[in-house]
Every structure is written in structure tokens, then in C-alpha cells.
């Protein structure tokens, strides 16, 4: 049943390839709704691993699946409106690549064989490349080239890390394996030297894909030039999937016992560096899409710190995957609307969007308030949980720096986003044909509501899922 | 090393890996793109033959051999070769690091790879074999080509060599790596190179050049 989550999008992709371009967005929408229904049905049900241990939609995978599926449905609704505006542009690659990406992301959430996981993750990278080039200009081709080269090389490093991991099992018991269950079961005997080498390369690989500083070089360029819908999928979907990669590695290290401390310290260090770099570049940023890219760097930093803190912070970290993914979706999609209305993404030209596009600008503002961790939205809960865990574990320096960077980033974002939304529109601005439409606004309102509700009350199935997931990331003793 | 006592198949494998190492240097020293592509393809073919030499005959190994030979030996070089013909360039021009320094750096790194591999806790049957040093030095050679050359196509060749390096390490595990995963990795590599070739084509149309140092519009102000 759960395997349909992979095959159904692929089937729709084939259908989408064949039919006329006018109906293609509807295929995208249908696929996303079927996928959403199936993943919601899978949420509350405990699955069992397949006999060979390759596939298992465990609680951790289900958390990411929840985020990916909801985000994708929103993007699919939005795509219908978006592609109606750009009627004359060919949309075959956009729709088909998005569907293949959905299938690959679903496979990522359930792959327990780390080699298969790698293949699926690399597929998500590749399917996004043609979409970044959707606008067909010199800037977007440059962004595509940087994205594909840096991410391909990065993820090749992760492959080498996996080989090292498999070799450590070969040295230990002659039976090389990359099945997560077996790795965890025999983690105590694994060769330490190979394990550490594996860790370094896996962190570099998945860190590059996530955009964890100092491996984030591609991120601002890519997010800045990609259409909003692609930015939303990258920042909310692919980031969550690659973070799941780090979580899988973490599970292995957790079982080895001794190797974990080094891993955790490195994650915290890179997380804090990401927040610091995001703070610096957000402060002097005049392009609001690149601004969002740095906000994404900040949030992968927060995720890394949460995972690095471990015990006590895991619940909040897993919750933050969902909160970050959904909020980034709202931000990128509403920023895309504003970008189209002004034909510019520079804050010097885009001012007073609230008068021109009341709904999109309002959503952009609400998204900003949510992503900076202000109550009552759900990112507040998860960020608060992580910082509390830091103080409880006597990582006072980490906690203080975390709060300091959050404050700096809040001020930096506010300085840019508030004039964009609230200021006076420039008087010499030509009228734009682009206006808020139901399809490019309504889904965003819905997600914003979800983010608000999750900040006040979490449904029982989600709480149980997060608790089960957190339990898998804590030392059993 | 006691080459005399070495089983014959391992001896042949080591000889082939020496060829792989030599090809690295040939590529580091050459500026002709088609020549570099053929050299990388030769590496791919050697990588395809190696599993068959190392392991006893089985359906699994045969399938892997065929996949690697077709993928790395024919399809991928073919796609890059087509990109070269489409954009009509023949040579790398003024790399960031000259060919002689690149060769010297490659030699130093290869020596370092041998020293490093000595120290690694390899399992007994893999000791005194060339797999690990060959893997690391090919990886580094690929990385050098990738980072020091200007033309987009040279960078793709570098990426391919880097992947070859990783595959050499994977040979130590090829008996246990499932075909499905191996095939998936190859397919991803194939699609990756395909996408890169298309992007190169668009770069050359947009900028009338495939010099990646022209790609610097996007940066912080």
C-alpha cells in the first residue's frame, strides 16, 4: 500500500508527459491530491519493514512525508494558477519533473537501505535542475550550472561516505551491508576509523545538499533565480529529505555509542556557523528572494543544532522539520507573487506591496512573523523547545548564541521585509496585469492556518508521531 | 610486495589499476577535450572489466559488468562528446592552474594516497592491493580537473573522473552491493551528465562561450 506513494506520482508523470499542455497542471493537481490522501492514511498506521529490511515507512520517515506531501499539494494548486498566467511557456518539464521529484521524495522517506536512499536523494537533485532554468535567461542558467555541479559533487562525497560505512561493516563481519536495521544491530563492532571517515564524507555530502554553512554557496543563487514554486519545493521538501539523510547517519552513530559526541559537536558547530552567516548576509541583503535563501540557511542551522543537542531537543527538531517546510512554502510562493507583480525582487523598487497585492503581501508578512519564531505560530514552539533543551543540558553558550542570532536575524529580516510590505509604493510604477488570484493565494492561506493551528494545538496523531520519532533518536539504556 | 604469491586475477587487477592511474596523469596534462573524454571512457571500461576479474562468475557480476561497460564506456562519453561537437570547441583554454603544476600536484597527491592507504585498517584480503590508493588518487585527480579548468565540459569530465574514483572503492564491495542500487547509481550518473550536457549547450548559446568564469553575475553586492 505505501509503495503506491512512489508509483502513483510516476504513473501520473507518464500521463502528464503524453497529454496536452493545457490539462497538464490538472494532472499535477490530481496526483498531489491522491498522494496527500494516501500519506494521511499512512500517518496513523504503524508499518512493518519489508523482509529484506529495505523499505520501512518508520515514524521519522512519516514526519518528513507529512511535510513533503502537504507542501507538494500546495505547490500543485499554486502551479495551476501560475501556469495559467504563463500560458505560452512550455510546461511539460515543470509538471513531469515535479512529479518524478515527488516520487523520489516519497522513496527517500521510506528507504532503509542507505544506498537506495542515496539514489532517491540524488534523483530529487537532478529533477530540480531543469526547473531552476524555467525562466530561460542568463541568470537562471548560471544558477542551474552552479546548483547541478556543486550538488552533484557534494552528493558524490556522500556516496563515498556510504562506501566507507559499508566497508566498516565488511571489516567487522565480512558481510558488507547498508541496511539501516543491520547497521544499527551491529553498530558496536564496526570499525571506528572507517566509521569516522564515513561520517566526515556523509556530513559534507548531505550538508552540501541541505545548504549547511560553509557548504551553502549554491543556495542564494539558486533560490534567488528559481521560480517561487521551485524555491518552495527546494527549501521545504529537498531540505527536509537531506536532513533525513543526516538523521539516518545519526541513528547509526547513536547505536555505536562512542562516536556520537564528535558527530553532535560538529553538527552544533556547523549549525551555529550557518545561523551566524545567515545573520550577516540577511542584514545587508537587498534582494528578497536571496533573503529567503539565507533564512533557509539559518533554519537548516537550527535543525542541525537541534539534532546535535540530541536528547530533549529531538522532539522539537522533528517538529521543526514540518514547521520550517510549510512556512518556507508560504514565503517562497507569496514572494513569487510579489516578484511577478513588480517584475523586480530588489527592495529598492518593491515597496508597499500590501496596497498592490493585499493577500500575497499579507501572507508574506505573516510568513515572516512565523519564520522568525514569533508566537503564536508553530516555529515558535519548535525553536523554543530547542533553546530550552540547550539550557537544560548546560550548553549555555549554545543557547545564548542561538537566541542572539535569532534576534539579529529578526531585525535583519524586519528591516527588509517591512518596507516591502508596508511602505509607500513607488509613484512611477507601471500598472501590472498580475493580481492576486484564488489559486495562487487560497492554498497559502490554508497552510498559514495550519501553521497557526499547529502553534496552538497539535493533533494527537502528530504528537504520537513526533514522540515515536524522538524515541528513535534517543539512547536506549 | 610479494607479487609472486599473488593470485593471478588480483595481479591482473593491479595491472589494470596502474593503467587507471596513468590515465589520470594523461588527463591532467592534456588540453584536448575529445582526448580527455576518450581517456575517461577507457577508465570506465576498465572499471567495467574489473568486477569480472575479481569475483567468480555469477549473474549478478555479469549484470554489473554490462551496466558499467555500457554506461561509463559508451553512453556517458557519447553524451559529452556530442556536447563538445554541438558547442564546437576542441581545447581547454588557459586553465586556472597550468598543466605542469597540475601534474606535479597530481603526483604529490597520488604519493600521499599510497602513504595514506598503508595506514588504513583494511581487511586482510585487501592489503597490498592497489584499489584504495588508486581510488583516492583518481578522486583527487577528478577534483583537480573539476576545480582548475575553465571550460564547462572539462568540469564535467572532472566530475566523471571523480565518480570513477568512488567506483574503484566500490569494487571492494561489488559482490555485496545489490544490482538495483548499483544500477540506480549509474542511472543517476547518466541522467546527471545528460542534464549537464544540456545546460552546457544553453550556456554556450546564452554567453557565446562555455567559459564558466563568465558565470559571475550572481553574487552578493
How would you explain this protein's 3D organization?
Chain A has helices at residues 4-18, 24-43, 59-85, 92-110, 114-132, 138-173, 180-185, 192-210, 218-225, 228-256, 260-283, 288-309, 314-342, 353-356, 358-371, 378-392, 396-422, 438-456, 460-472. In chain A, helix 2 packs antiparallel against helix 3, helix 3 (59-85) packs across helix 19 (460-472) and helix 6 (138-173) packs antiparallel against helix 8 (192-210). By secondary structure, chain A is mainly alpha-helical. With 221 residues, chain B is mostly helical. Chain B has one domain. The model of chain B has no long low-confidence stretch (mean pLDDT 88). The A-B interface holds A 113, 115-116, 118-119, 122-123, 126, 129-130, 133, 137-139, 141-146, 148-149, 152-153, 156, 159-160, 163, 166-167, 170-171, 174-178, 191, 193-194, 220-221, 224-225, 281, 284-286 and B 120-123, 139, 146, 152, 155, 159, 162-163, 166, 169-170, 172-173, 176-178, 180-181, 184-185, 187-188, 191-192, 195-196, 198-199, 202-203, 206-207, 212, 215-218, 220-221.
Instruction: Report on the biggest sheet of chain A.
Output: none
Tally of contiguous helical segments of chain B: 7
Q: What Rg of chain B do the Cα atoms give? A: 18 Å
Individual helix count of chain A: 19
Tally of individual domains of chain A: 1
- Roughly what percent helix of chain A? over 70%
Amino acid at each position: 500500500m505505501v509503495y503506491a506513494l512512489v508509483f502513483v506520482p510516476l504513473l501520473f508523470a507518464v500521463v502528464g508527459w503524453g497529454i496536452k499542455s493545457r490539462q497538464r497542471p490538472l494532472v499535477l493537481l490530481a496526483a498531489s491530491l491522491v498522494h496527500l490522501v494516501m500519506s494521511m492514511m499512512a500517518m496513523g498506521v504503524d508499518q512493518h519493514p519489508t523482509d529484506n529490511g529495505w523499505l520501512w515507512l518508520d515514524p521519522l520517515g512519516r514526519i518528513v512525508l507529512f511535510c513533503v506531501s502537504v507542501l507538494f499539494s500546495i505547490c500543485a494548486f499554486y502551479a495551476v494558477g501560475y501556469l495559467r498566467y504563463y500560458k505560452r511557456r512550455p510546461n511539460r518539464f515543470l509538471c513531469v519533473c515535479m512529479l518524478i521529484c515527488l516520487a523520489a521524495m516519497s522513496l527517500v522517506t521510506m528507504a532503509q537501505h542507505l544506498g537506495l536512499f542515496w539514489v532517491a536523494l540524488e534523483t530529487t537533485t537532478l529533477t530540480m535542475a531543469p526547473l531552476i532554468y524555467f525562466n530561460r535567461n542568463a541568470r537562471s542558467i548560471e544558477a542551474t550550472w552552479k546548483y547541478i555541479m556543486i550538488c552533484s559533487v557534494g552528493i558524490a562525497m556522500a556516496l563515498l561516505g556510504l562506501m566507507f560505512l559499508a566497508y566498516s561493516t565488511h571489516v567487522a563481519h565480512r558481510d558488507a551491508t547498508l541496511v539501516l536495521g543491520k547497521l544499527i544491530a551491529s553498530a558496536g563492532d564496526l570499525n571506528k576509523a572507517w566509521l569516522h571517515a564515513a561520517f566526515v564524507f556523509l556530513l559534507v555530502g548531505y550538508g552540501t545538499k541541505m545548504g549547511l554553512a560553509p557548504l551553502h554557496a549554491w543556495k542564494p543563487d539558486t533560490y534567488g533565480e528559481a521560480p517561487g514554486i521551485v524555491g518552495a519545493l527546494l527549501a521545504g521538501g529537498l531540505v527536509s529529505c537531506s536532513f533525513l539523510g543526516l538523521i539516518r547517519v545519526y541513528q547509526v552513530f547513536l547505536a555505536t555509542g562512542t562516536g556520537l559526541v564528535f558527530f553532535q559537536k560538529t553538527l552544533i558547530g556547523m549549525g551555529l556557523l550557518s545561523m551566524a552567516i545567515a545573520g550577516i548576509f540577511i542584514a545587508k541583503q537587498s534582494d528578497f528572494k536571496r533573503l529567503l535563501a539565507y533564512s533557509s540557511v539559518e533554519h537548516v542551522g537550527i535543525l542541525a543544532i537541534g539534532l546535535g543537542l540530541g536528547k530533549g531537543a529531538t522532539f522539537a527538531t522533528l517538529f521543526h522539520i514540518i514547521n520550517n517546510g510549510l512556512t518556507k512554502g508560504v514565503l517562497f510562493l507569496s514572494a513569487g507573487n510579489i516578484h511577478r507583480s513588480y517584475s523586480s525582487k530588489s527592495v529598492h523598487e518593491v515597496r508597499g506591496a500590501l496596497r498592490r497585492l493585499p493577500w500575497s503581501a499579507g501572507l508574506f508578512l505573516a510568513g515572516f512573523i512565523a519564520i522568525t519564531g514569533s508566537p503564536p505560530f508553530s516555529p515558535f514552539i519548535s525553536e523554543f523547545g530547542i533553546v530550552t533543551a540547550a539550557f537544560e543540558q548546560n550548553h549555555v553558550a549554545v543557547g545564548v548564541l542561538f537566541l542572539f542570532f535569532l534576534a539579529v536575524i529578526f531585525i535583519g529580516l524586519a528591516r527588509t521585509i517591512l518596507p516591502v510590505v508596508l511602505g509607500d509604493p513607488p509613484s512611477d510604477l507601471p500598472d501590472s496585469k498580475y493580481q492576486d488570484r484564488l489559486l495562487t493565494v487560497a492554498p497559502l492561506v490554508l497552510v498559514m492556518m495550519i501553521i497557526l493551528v499547529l502553534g496552538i494545538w497539535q493533533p494527537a496523531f502528530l504528537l504520537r508521531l513526533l514522540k515515536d520519532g524522538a524515541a528513535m533518536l534517543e539512547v536506549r539504556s | 610486495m610479494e607479487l609472486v604469491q599473488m593470485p593471478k586475477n588480483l595481479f591482473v587487477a593491479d595491472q589494470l589499476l596502474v593503467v587507471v592511474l596513468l590515465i589520470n596523469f594523461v588527463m591532467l596534462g592534456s588540453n584536448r577535450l575529445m582526448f580527455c573524454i576518450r581517456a575517461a571512457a577507457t577508465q570506465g571500461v576498465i572499471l567495467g572489466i574489473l568486477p569480472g576479474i575479481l569475483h567468480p562468475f555469477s549473474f549478478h557480476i555479469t549484470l554489473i559488468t554490462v551496466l558499467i561497460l555500457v554506461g561509463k564506456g559508451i553512453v556517458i562519453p557519447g553524451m559529452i562528446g556530442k556536447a563538445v561537437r554541438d558547442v564546437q570547441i576542441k581545447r581547454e583554454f588557459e586553465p586556472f592552474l597550468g598543466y605542469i603544476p597540475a601534474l606535479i600536484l597530481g603526483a604529490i597527491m597520488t604519493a600521499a594516497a599510497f602513504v595514506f592507504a598503508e595506514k588504513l585498517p583494511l581487511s586482510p584480503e585487501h592489503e597490498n592491493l592497489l584499489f584504495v590508493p588508486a581510488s583516492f588518487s583518481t578522486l583527487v585527480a577528478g577534483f583537480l580537473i573539476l576545480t582548475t579548468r575553465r571550460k564547462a565540459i572539462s568540469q564535467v569530465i572532472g566530475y566523471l573522473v571523480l565518480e570513477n574514483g568512488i567506483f574503484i572503492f566500490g569494487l571492494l564491495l561489488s559482490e555485496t552491493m545489490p544490482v538495483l542500487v548499483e544500477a540506480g547509481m549509474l542511472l543517476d550518473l547518466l541522467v546527471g551528465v545528460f542534464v549537464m550536457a544540456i545546460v552546457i549547450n544553453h550556456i554556450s548559446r546564452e554567453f557565446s562561450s562555455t567559459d564558466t568564469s563568465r558565470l559571475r553575475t550572481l553574487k552578493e553586492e
